[in-house]
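Researcher: Can you fold this with nicotinamide-adenine-dinucleotide in place?
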Amino acid sequence: MELKGKHVIYQGGFGGIGLWSVKKFLERGVKRIAIFDRRVDPRALQELKDVYIDSSIFFVQFDITNNESITEAFESAIKFMGHFDVLVCGIMDDSQVERTINVNLTGMINSTFIALPYMDRSKGGRGGTIVNISSVGGLQPIPYVSVYSGSKHGVTGFTRSMGNPYSYKHLGVNFITICPGITDTDLVANLECKATFEFAKVIAMRFKSAASQSPEMCASNLVKVVETGKNGGVYVLDLAMIEEVNFENVWEPVFR
Ligand SMILES: NC(=O)c1ccc[n+]([C@@H]2O[C@H](COP(=O)([O-])OP(=O)(O)OC[C@H]3O[C@@H](n4cnc5c(N)ncnc54)[C@H](O)[C@@H]3O)[C@@H](O)[C@H]2O)c1
């Protein structure tokens, strides 16, 4: 997708990867961008407005665990931008079991379904692309953060299931999954606090010395994937590289 002149909604746009991604979208010349986040960051918002003077930037505070809040956020974004071509969800929490699932998975699914009628071509929308940020931990087990990893497997499974040709025929919406590797944001700063069990803290600490990428590099590659990625595609963004994941089917339905 050519991004110049497009309208983007970025959920989690004040996060470590989010703020860089918002900048990369603006560098591509998107016309309007709406940042949805629970976090309020007036200074970052003002800096964006001062630098990217040719684009319109709008912020809505919202909580992805609350459907009313998601609905209101989309309603005010539509008043601001009329329509949107790209929706990114880059939100996460890993504080306790219910919260992790509610924010990372249930919230992401609900916001996808609340957004879809605005994009759905069969209902007069313009189609577009929905990008959900999963993780390398949403592709393979990460033993010491099993709840986070389980929630991210859900993100990958949901987004891949939505990204099929039959749904595309009706909706005109592409679904892309992004799986970052270790990226230097607040998420990895306190890894030992995120361990599922006390005994797993030692392994968690070891990840602090693992090779990582900057959030700017991850964001650059995220925007490239939005430009070039395919419906149903899953892309690992790790150590400044983009790699598409090729899945083997382990099961096929037998039709009688
Ligand atoms: N940093 C990494 O190493 C890494 C690796 C793999 C995947 N990811 C994924 O990338 C995405 C961005 O991660 P990040 O490292 O930038 O994290 P981050 O913590 O910096 O950003 C997450 C954002 O989510 C927002 N948020 C949290 N709960 C919310 C809620 N209930 N409602 C609305 N907003 C809420 C926060 O305010 C924050 O701006 C996440 O989906 C994360 O799981 C990150």
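Model: Folded with nicotinamide-adenine-dinucleotide in place. The chain is about 40% helix and 15% strand.
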